[in-house]
Write a structure and sequence with these properties.
mainly alpha, disordered C terminus
């Protein structure tokens, strides 16, 4: 978790500052029309959000090492919230022509306020709703009510943070993490399946709508390819910025983290993480919310980067994985879309990257969570090695019973078939 937080928080800030600094340098030298320091930092913050959907789908198809999947997926989820908080913070300083120490202090203070304030709201709503749903479990509510409550709690966490002029996305993310840990086991199996697939369908429709809007807004002007809307130097340099900033993020932080990790991040994994820095919906949405003097140029440049990274890098990821000989994490593909599946029960073994003793702080948290938090707020008890093996045995028995039932049904149907 420490590695994911490091890449998502510190890495996102490094990426944003790197892109913004290079953009400002180009404007200061007269090679780019974007010469306002806050505007350049806004451009850096919106491009710091990664969205490696194509890469993650490929990881599932090829069944890569779960360590690599966890790092890329965890960073992409968390860094969206960090990028949004940074963008909203910088948006309050639009109009400043200089970036002195006083302004930097104000930006840092606003960023911390938005980040920690939104997190606190998500945690508070998550704990309150978890306690309520744990008690309501005795009522045996219908799946309709349970799924509605899940959606209502998520929306309330977003709404309260927005009313408080904080980040609803961060609050929603934190509340959702808590809901998956506590709320998920306070509702019935039917409600879990319904909520899981319903949220997946809504997410798919929402992301599709975003990319459809990209095509619609890209050509909404009479002449979308004029010099004022597309600056060749700025667009070309932006492609170099995203690769350089990504390298300054992944490789130095991996080097530092490897000194403290018991299982090191291999250099091959670092190359894939660097290459997998695709940009997506979050970057587009933030760009469309710009209200600066060069907003159109920045928005069009963001469109170009998103299209390039998703097409070119997305296509080239599979050959890169084969070239680097990235090893598989198990015998069967890990199905992360299964709401009740665990990694070991799907692959038949615990991957080597996860077979190490956790740190003392993690052990203390597990004891506290299992002994106090879960009995109060709900949640499934952490499985041991014996219980994991029993899950495998039960799964095999269930599959055997299902096969037997199908065979009996076929036999009965065949023997009751009408004779002409």
């Amino acid at each position: 978790m420490l590695s994911i937080l490091t890449f998502a928080v510190l890495g996102t800030i490094i990426t944003a500052v790197s892109i913004g600094g290079v953009a400002y340098g180009l404007g200061y030298a007269g090679w780019s029309p974007v010469d306002n320091v806050i505007e350049c930092m806004l451009f850096g913050s919106l491009l710091s959000a990664t969205d490696p959907v194509a890469t993650l789908s490929l990881f599932l198809e090829l069944n890569v090492d779960p360590l690599l999947y966890s790092l890329v997926f965890g960073e992409s989820v968390l860094n969206d919230a960090v990028a949004i908080a940074l963008f909203r913070t910088l948006s309050k300083f639009v109009g400043n022509t200089t970036l002195g120490w006083k302004t930097i202090g104000q930006i840092v203070g606003q960023f911390l306020l938005i980040s920690f304030g939104s997190t606190a709201i998500g945690v508070a709503i998550g704990f309150i709703s978890a306690f309520v749903m744990k008690q309501a479990k005795r009522l045996k509510l219908s799946p309709t009510y349970e799924v509605t409550l899940i959606g209502f709690v998520a929306y309330i966490s977003y709404l309260v943070a927005e009313v408080a002029t904080l980040s609803g996305i961060i609050s929603l993310f934190v509340c959702s993490v808590m809901m998956s840990h506590y709320h998920w086991y306070s509702i019935g199996q039917t409600s879990r399946t319904t909520a899981y697939h319903t949220s997946g369908a809504i997410a798919f429709v929402a992301e599709t709508a975003v990319f459809v809007s990209m095509g619609l807004t890209l050509f909404e002007t009479d002449d979308p390819f004029t010099k004022d809307l597309w600056n060749p130097v700025f667009v070309t340099s932006s492609f170099g910025m995203i690769f350089i900033s990504r390298a300054l993020n992944v490789f130095p932080l991996s080097l530092v983290l490897n000194f403290a990790r018991k299982v090191r991040i291999p250099f091959k994994h670092q190359i894939v993480m660097w290459f997998a820095g695709l940009r997506g919906a979050i970057a587009i949405i933030l760009a469309l919310n710009l209200s600066t003097s060069h907003a159109t140029l920045i928005t069009n440049t963001t469109y170009a980067i998103v299209l390039f990274t998703n097409l070119a890098i997305g296509i080239a990821t599979k050959p890169l994985l084969h070239c680097l000989k990235i090893e598989s994490g198990g015998d069967k593909p890990v199905n992360v879309r299964n709401p009740d599946a665990s990694l070991s029960t799907q692959t038949g073994h615990t991957p080597s990257s996860m077979q190490y003793r956790r740190g003392r702080i993690h052990q203390l948290w597990v004891r506290f969570d299992e002994g106090f938090m879960k009995p109060l707020f709900g949640g499934r008890q952490r499985p041991t090695a014996d219980s994991e093996q029993q899950l495998l045995v039960n799964d095999d028995e269930d599959q055997g019973r299902e096969a037997s039932v199908r065979t009996n049904r076929e036999f009965v149907f065949t023997n009751n078939e009408p004779v002409a």
